Amino acid sequence: MTTLQTTVEAIPVGEGRTVLADPAAPAVSAKPWLAVIGATLGAFMAVLNIQIVNASLADVRGGIGAGIDDGGWISTSYLIAEIVVIPLSGWLAQVFSIRIYLLANAFLFLVFSAACALAQNLPQMIVLRAVQGFTGGVLIPLAFTLIITLLPKAKQPIGMALFAISATFAPAIGPTIGGYLTENFGWEYIFYVNIAPGMLMIAMLYFSLEPGPTRLSLLREGDWAGIVTMAIGLAALQTVLEEGNKDDWFGSPFIVRLALIAAIALPLFVAIELTGRKPLLDLRILFRRNFGFGVLANFLLGVALYGSVYILPVYLSRIQGYNSEQIGMVLAWTGLPQLMLIPLVPRLMKRVDPRIMIGVGFALFAGSNFMNIYMTNDYAADQLLWPNVVRAVGQAIMFAPLSAVATAGIEPENAGSASALFNMMRNLGGAIGIAALQTLLTKREQYHSNVLSQSVSVFEQATRTRLDQLTQYFMNHGVIDRVDAAHRAYVAIGHIVQKQAFILAFSDTFYTLGAALIVALLAGLMLKKPDRLEAGGAH
Fold first, then answer.
1. What is the crossing angle of helices 170-184 and 289-318, to 10°?
2. pLDDT tens sequence across 507-538
3. Are 128 and 115 in contact (CB under 8 A)?
4. For the purposes of burial, counting CB atoms within 10 Å of the CB of 65, is it exposed (0-12), middle (13-18) or buried (19 or more)?
5. What is d(CA 152, CA 164) in angstroms, rounded to the nearest whole number?
6. Where are the alpha helices (DSSP H) in 185-223?
7. Which residues sit opposite 18 in a β-bridge?
8. Is 186 left (phi over 0), alpha (psi -120 to 50) or beta?
9. Less crowded by CB within 10 Å, the N or C end of the chain?
10. CB 40 within 8 A of CB 419
């Protein structure tokens, strides 16, 4: 029995009984649904706070006087804290009871959300964002755990569909909400927006989860070696991924040191978990066919999900000059269709093999990225509409079946480990995906610039003609000195070449995302149909 067992083995939900994930369970009362909805609302806000801040990072940096380089820590501190706490949440919920632990972190998440809006400088913001991430990160795995422990098998697809709203809809809609609030009310409101739904979440959890015993004695028996190596390893790895491209990767001694720490700590963590008597996480469940391939597909989903949400705003801002609100409107077409489709997924799972839905979903998501590999200077909102809609459909029909198939054979005592691993790997995939795309974008822009520059030569008649036209243009618009006008013409040509190189590089990033999703599709094809998996509403 793992140290997570008590958390997920029996969670009181009221009316003097305990509901477990048993396919033969009777109809579910209102309290478990209230707990699941409240917890998934919390998970939605925790994920939303990654992208809603990223979309308005320039405004936040300006508001607290942070530079471009250091301002990245506003997001990095949140992500590091979130990814470290996800694996710890099941065990800590056992120590303090799931009711106390979930309610305390939900309350603190709101407190530190509001505190972030009041930050006066960068150090304050980094600390506040780290604590916000540490409390918000708890909400993600515990929502997933409640779904697979409180709901019977017949109702779990409905719970997974609710969780999909936090996992795929929240990242897509985050830039839309963040851009609108920043442009119309100020950057502080991207933090204040958590308060109203957060109070509703706390009320639902307060009335649906009954008190349970605390087991503080478990702190003495905790897998502290695993906890320390995991926390150090994940924090170091996340920092490397977030800061590596900016610091020229292994050209930076700071990045080299952190990479070495991660390379030592993470294998140690794996060894400790596989050999320990009471491991923090039961890593052996990764060797199960469905869960192992499901986690791999989910990891690659994180690469593409967070990667595409990162790359599109960068493209629209850098190439098309869009502001935060305009970017949000473009990405809305990635989010809004999901809100309409996800509620239909449990019903569809009653009629269609969930593995087919997973395959079609990944194929559509991959196809949406391949639709963007021939970008031009005029490729903007209108051209991105259909790729975004196709992507939304793919994400909507794929996540709930993937979660259901991957966790179908998980016993209640392993639910905490399964939840932590499934959600941590998706977030880790997102971090690796964004870091890889940043580096790929830089390297491919340099490559395309070199190739294009070889074709733009003063010995070419077309180039000389274009320089003469630009020189004359500048002289007709107030530049008196012809030498100055000619210099500006050369600079303008350089900007045109660089812009075209960036457009080609962005096309390459979408091609890479599509390729990653093809691998995820192959992993999905390896899933075995579970012996018992009923869709929502089945009996």
1. 30
2. 999 999 999 999 999 999 999 887 655 443 33
3. yes
4. exposed
5. 18
6. 189-192, 195-208, 218-221
7. 12
8. left
9. C
10. no
